[in-house]
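Q: Joint fold for the lines below.
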Amino acid sequence: MVDLSVDIGALRLANPVMPASGTFGHELARVIDVERLGALVIKTVTADKRIGNPTPRVAEVSGGMLNSIGIPSKGPKHFVEEIVPLYRRFRAPLVASISANTPDQFAEICATVSVPGVSAIEVNISCPNIEDDGRAFAMRPEPTLAVMKKLREASDLPLWAKLTPNSGEIQEVARAAEEGGANAIVVANTILAMSVDIRTRKPSLGKIMGGLSGPAVKPIILRMAYQCARSVSIPVIGCGGIMTAEDAIEYMLVGCRAVQVGTATFINPTAMLAVIEGLEQWCREQSLVSIREIVGQLGDAGDRGAMNWEGVA
Amino acid sequence: MLPPVMADRADKPSLDVIEHKALILRHESVNADYRLIEVSAPDQARKAVAGQFFHLLCPHAGGLEPFLRRPMSIYRIDREAGTLSFLYKVTGSGTRAMATLREGDRLDMLGPLGIGFSLPLNRAPIVLLARGVGLATLAPLVALATERRHPVTAILSARAPEYLMSVAEMRADGAQVITVVDSDMTSEVDRVEDLLHGLRAQGRMEALYTCGSNRLLLLAQAVARQYGLHGEVAMEQQMACGLGMCFCCVRPFQVENEITHRRVCCEGPVFPLAEAMGW
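A: Joint structure:
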């Protein structure tokens, strides 16, 4: 029997596989047994009510998709009264996801959603900060630290900071999130991208630019997860292009304690269950007692020839 | 269509959406534009109702393309034979990949999904107004309505006579079929409007259903409003998950002077005619 459980700070998950925010809802319980997931991370709720972006909101690209949903949201009151109760019937811990346009708004919604039934809060600091000329909080360390400190004061629940890959200094941002009081970081949100329909000469998305996800992003986000895991001591949750158990194992070997699966679920609603089964199978084949044994167990780089690389003179 | 909220945790929601790799029994061209695919899917056929759709995983043409599933409305449901049919036009990478499937191959289908058509009370007569691919969506409504003893009139609109489909099948199901085409101008909106007024005068129109044309949608809305008819429209939108999770497939609707956004996949694809907005 393989022990698949992992600890994200004080929160124990039955296994390291959970949905990425925005790709999961209670609707999936019509297709799979969602009780088997490590955690249930649900759609981001914003401080304000939003209708979301104009359509088309989705475009297909090689090995992935672009989306510009724009976080349609009915606000925190609706979330607490209508959405949280929908998940009471599930055993897996519920992880809320929140976002806001200013640090103060962010702290306010963080306090509002800290209610019984919510086990942790993923703080989506990849969204634009209107007090910083629209740059995402997590693009730079200073606004990340500032907003995390306010969030930390607003809630006693575990806080997971979801970072953006659209940053040139993601390790510094990860350290700022840790210093500000995050209990874990999620690496990462989607990569800002675009595509053009040459038939109509129009951008494929109604909002012109959107987030790239799917297998196309995996090598980039894996690299970032590796860099972040080396930079912080809090758990790192890998999120980017995971389609199979093998992809999840790569993320865990570079230091991720758990993983989020998103786009894969759109193509195959059973994808997360297949990843869980694949992880268990792989552990058995590797004679591992616990999945925790592989976290960060990345071997030294280089082949035999590389051993003499610098010795040759 | 949200699953019921269970108060009792032991009472798990049913897994009512099935993913099935269905055997392809038939796959052929219907005319220059459209192809018909028939698959064996007994469990899904038993659950499916007219107006619902399946989310189809098209075979990969190379690499991971096409990447996402493609929503396709049901063209024909045969519960006894345990078969489902889809009528589609090759327009993009998804349908192009689908066209390469052969009899004996398997088609990965997720569904049935979405909310289907509803019929008025008391065997009231209904009228269908279909054009292009909308015909594929409305066709199973003919079978459903005639089975429940509603008199059905189907007005089928196409570019030219050779693009009219399903005429014989609908007549066999018991519908009165009126065909209109661009090539002789019978499909012009004011002439179709005259047809509708005529059907109303004959007592053949208590409800109105449409799909596939913006002009016909606007016409149907005006006529339904004039006579206070029950009306429904089936709509399309690009989708990712098909289950209501991703919010990619929203469309605007007008409800009591307010614009609201609804997901085509789970709040539709069939919507109240009066609330739909043209495109």
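Q: Anything notable?
A: The interface with chain B takes residues 22-33, 35, 43, 51-52, 55-65, 67, 69, 72, 85-86, 88-89, 91, 214-215, 265-270 of chain A (CB under 8 Å). The radius of gyration of chain A is 19 Å.
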